[in-house]
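INSTRUCTION: Work out how this chain folds

Fields: amino acid sequence; protein backbone structure tokens

Chain under study, with its fold:
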Amino acid sequence: MFECFHINMAKEGWQASNFRNEVLQMTKWLTRQEKVTMFENYLHCYTNENNLEAKEDLGSLPAKSGIVRAKPERGGGRFDVVAVANTSLARATSLEGIKIGRLRLIFKLPSKTTLFTLAPPNWPSGPLAYVEWYDVSSVPGQHHHMYSVSKPNISQSQTPKGAIIPLNTICQTCQLIPLVSSGRQRSNSWTSKNVLDECSTFLLNNWASKYAYQTIW
């Protein structure tokens, strides 16, 4: 065993030096080897934790009804509009206690903040989501019985209103219908990929599915 230590700590270090002032060079070489070994062990532990804790794709996770997605891609990606149970008053058959927003990010906090430091115990361990909130009308339309949804007016220097929430508070995805003001024409540049960015006012479609019809009214 000691012969192996002699090879690893003396002979290999000697061969890595230029044979001048060799003790200092061998000491620095050995220190670097130890740091590389420590980092390899860290990567091994980190990979194993990810395999155990994050088996699901955090860009696409199941909600209580359907799949929610927040995936950046070339050409715009997909960031779903979702209904979120915002208070304890949230009910399954109305918008009471529900907020509407656009899902921007799905993520989890790490279990370690540094190589040897565990994350604070009060950090949530489950998946989280960042949502930018929309404004929703207090009453539905008289004829179509759909709520109007609008993006808050913000300047380029302002940050959109948003919040980090537990992913399991998302109830469902929502379908929005672009709403064009009276006397104005629909823009020909709108597509399914950019309309949520280009348009500012929508109708919350509670006719999109049976589940939406039962829960959004």
Residues 82 and 173 are 4 Å apart (CA to CA). The chain has two domains: 2-43, 81-113+122-216. Residues 2-43 form one domain.
